């Protein structure tokens, strides 16, 4: 097991009180595996990634357990975390233009983690930077090391971000919406590049996205999050073929399918609840067409519905009691 996340909960302070952002989030990832985390904006996808990286405000309350191999990240000091971030775990953020420093050259920004985590000489670092730029498919690598982010296109900047993340050959790469601002052609190139890097380095990838097409293309397993909780997880094949949670079904019905003609795409009425006004029962109950009275008063248990498939929904307690729908 490369990464194990167990009952991860996060509360952030706002206006003098703590708001629960994540609630008992659990999942795992192996080497050479890509795990997708999907859900609408405000469901806790990015906060899960930042919690794993421990990139949180000082007053944040984090509980649960995050283990990278034999190391438990949640108990590490700041100095110990500095040795892991950018070395064993790297993260690619949503917007490369704001993530890259406009005052420093591309080469300098890539070499920073090499200076921190390796014993390479200045000459060796420069060669490693050039090799990384070539590895991520950028032309004119020898010239690009001296250029600034504003001189590059969006796709080139994203490739630079990947080069920074891959500089020290991390065991785990976390990608937070890495292709959001890119056109379809460049998006496909970036996803293919990341797949190739995963195979070459035998690393694990966490792919955070709202794009189910990206999940279908590159992920092995998927975690569906809603309002800070995991509502369903399983293999991509099983979850796409037999989605169990009403929220997952709603997400899949909103995606257009080639060869299928419809007057309109499916949609999920309402919005994700605010942490200030979180329902006491199932957090999706107010938007769910199949909600029962029980759903609005109690949070659902998690049920196993396949070999590697779980769902948190009261409908499956009813089905179990009637011995229907569960194998």
UniProtKB/TrEMBL annotation:
Keyword Transport among record annotations: yes
Entry membrane topology: Peripheral membrane protein
Pfam families in the cross-refs: ABC_tran (PF00005), oligo_HPY (PF08352)
Gene3D superfamilies recorded: P-loop containing nucleotide triphosphate hydrolases (3.40.50.300)
Keywords, in A-Z order: ATP-binding, Cell membrane, Membrane, Nucleotide-binding, Transport
Positions of the ABC transporter domain: 3-252
This protein's name: ABC transporter ATP-binding protein
Organism: Robertmurraya mangrovi
